[in-house]
Amino acid sequence: MAIDLDRPYPLSPQQIAAYRRDGFIKLKDVFNADELRRYGEEITRLTIALNTQTKPLEERSTYDRAFLQVMNLWEESDTVREFVFGKRLAGIAAALMEVDGVRLYHDQSLYKEPGGGITPAHADQYYWPVASDRTITAWVPLQAVPQDMGPLAFFAGSQHEAFGRDLEISDESEQAITANMQAHGFRVVDEPFDLGEVSFHSGWTFHRAGPNRSTRPRSVMTVIYLDRDMRLKAPDNHMQRADWERWCPGAAIDAVIDTPKNPLLFEGKVAA
User: Fold this and answer.
1) Which superkingdom (predicted)?
2) Are the CB atoms for 93 and 136 separated by under 8 Å?
3) What is the pLDDT, as a whole number, of residue 57?
4) Chain centroid to CA 50: how far?
5) What is the pLDDT of residues 41-61, one digit of tens each?
6) According to the 3-state scheme, what is the secondary structure of the chain?
7) How large is the C-alpha radius of gyration of the chain?
8) Low pLDDT (below 70) residues in the chain
9) Residue 237 CB contacts under 8 Å (≥ 6 apart), including other chains
10) Which fold does the domain 13-248 belong to in CATH?
11) CA dihedral 37, 150, 240, 177 (to 10 degrees)
């Protein structure tokens, strides 16, 4: 069966409104088993081959116990490039952000090993030198993710909360952000993912993941999208400066992030 990653995935006005309210959404049947198998095998192969982690789990930091990660796999493989450049995911991202187009920030595989630890609470946009909140991450499990495997969990509506935006992923962020979320009554959505289910979350939505207590790896591919017209801002921290150099090389402050590493992946309206 031919695979068409440009086939649209229509969204309802209610789904777009739910994303606007909660800062995230989980969508069923974005991919089928054949699609996940084809691209998942290559993503997993490259993640294992290219990751540089050599320490056993018990000797790693909290961050490094959370997952193995490899970024911009689209530059390493034509097969992964097909996946990352697919208009199905990019079209959903544009529709949810209510923008006329999206470009790539970077992709990132996240491979939580059996016995891997928690992913501490954080907001992704702490790391990104971007001028607006029109950012979104597609979190694509390459298999079903039962509860014991550590599915991504979200604090619904937290994209408007300022506390914790200056914290990188760490034991401190897990403690401080989780306590603040509880104090303000943000609802935690921590549920399994079915095969083919994909989540999308805003750059400022706080989220975390539990440990992988299963005997199987939790293999996930993520793609981060920016509004087509996103501008680079002066970095607020050393992580944002590093991201500028690595993911937006040649981009200028206050100019649209339009570099060879940030191609336009979708333009136009998505059917609803």
Assistant:
1) Bacteria
2) yes
3) 77
4) 19
5) 999 999 999 988 878 777 787
6) CCCCCCCCCCCCHHHHHHHHHHCEEEECCCCCHHHHHHHHHHHHHHHHHHCCCCCCHHHCCHHHHHCEEEECHHHCCHHHHHHHCCHHHHHHHHHHHCCCEEEEEEEEEEEECCCCCCEEEECHHHHCCECCCCEEEEEEECCCECHHHCCEEEECCHHHCCCCCCCCCCHHHHHHHHHHHHHCCCCEECCCECCCCEEEEECCCCEEECCCCCCCCEEEEEEEEEECCCEECCCCCHHHHHHHHHHCCCCCECCECCCCCCCEEEECCCCC
7) 17
8) 1, 64, 66, 269-272
9) 126, 166
10) Jelly Rolls (2.60.120)
11) 160
Kind of pairing, strands 264-267 and 119-122? Answer: unpaired
- Report whether 110 contacts 73 (CB < 8 A): no
**Domain ranges across the chain:** 13-248
